[in-house]
Design brief:
single chain, Immunoglobulin-like, four-stranded mixed β-sheet, globular
C-alpha cells in the first residue's frame, strides 16, 4: 500500500478520536453531578466487601464512594460489624438506610465515617440522600 493511501486512513482515525474525546468531555453537566449518560450503579452479587472478619463473625468492612456509586453497592455482614465508608468523589455524599437505622451524615471528599451494622438480620436498602440515584443493599445475616 502506498503512502498516499495510508494518510486518509490515519487522518480519519485521528479525526474520529478527536470527536470521541470532545463528546466525552462535553457529556457532563459541569456542576459536579453525573450526566444522564452515566449508568447507575448496578448491584452485583452479594460480596463480603473487603472484610477483616474475626472468628466471632464480627469484623470491619470498607465501602468506597467513587464515580457516584458505592463500591461494593451490595454486601453481606454479620450483626454488629463495623462498616467504614470513605468518599473519594469531589461531591459530598451520604450512606443512609431507607429506614434511617444507619447514616454516615455528609461526607466531603476524603472523609470517612464508621457505623455499626444493625443487630437484626435482614436486608437494608440504602441511598445517598444528596444523590438518590445512588443505591445499595446491606444484608445482615
Amino acid at each position: 500500500m502506498s503512502m498516499r493511501h495510508r494518510r486518509p486512513h490515519t487522518a480519519l482515525i485521528v479525526a474520529a478520536l478527536c470527536l470521541v474525546t470532545t463528546l466525552t468531555g462535553c457529556s457532563g453537566s459541569g456542576d459536579g453531578s453525573p450526566s444522564s449518560s452515566t449508568p447507575p450503579a448496578s448491584p452485583s452479587a452479594p460480596a463480603s466487601a473487603s472484610p477483616s472478619s474475626s472468628e466471632s463473625g464480627k469484623g470491619e468492612v470498607k465501602v468506597t464512594i467513587k464515580g457516584f456509586a458505592f463500591h461494593p453497592a451490595t454486601f453481606e455482614v454479620s450483626p454488629g460489624t463495623k462498616i467504614t465508608v470513605t468518599n473519594e468523589d469531589s461531591a459530598t455524599h451520604t450512606l443512609t438506610a431507607d429506614d434511617k437505622s444507619f447514616d454516615t451524615g455528609d461526607l466531603a471528599q476524603g472523609e470517612s465515617a464508621t457505623f455499626t451494622a444493625p443487630s437484626k438480620p435482614g436486608s437494608y436498602s440504602y441511598i445517598c440522600t444528596i444523590h438518590p440515584n445512588m443505591k445499595g443493599i446491606l444484608t445482615v445475616r
